[in-house]
Design goal:
alpha+beta; PAR1 protein; PAR1; about 15% strand
Amino acid sequence: MYSRGGVRGSASESVHLRDRRLRKRCVLENYKSEEGSVGYTCKSSEVVVERLAGYIETDECVNACGVDRKFVGISSDAFLTPEFISSLCSPACYHNCPNIVDLYFDLAAGEGVFLPALCEKHKTSPHRAMLELLSSSGGAAASAAVDEAIVGSPAPAPAPSAF
């Protein structure tokens, strides 16, 4: 237990308060108890954000953005599913859920992807957005001219065999 400013609480609450001041994100992790049951705990991530709109997402944002409160960990693999990108880039999520969008913005940036450009490309050509993401090893920075030249070019013939 700790006491701070007349408020009493547990050590984990103390960590939670400290994390709020530092504006660090929480990553849900699972663990197995001595009894064998699975439990969940919130661990501070090293991702520091500039602004937070709130500390707990609304059900509306969770649903609009296609995330789940019971997700354990976070992965850039989510960007490879068109359904997730559609949800994340939807106006209901993108314009109303800054905590979730900022988290995935940072995750995308770590993969060399600029989330606003990915969302814009997804609106006009979802399949091309996925191809760019896959073909550039996560980076969606190829210009449209280069992209069109690659897509419009025939595949080279195989080299003659020496055998």
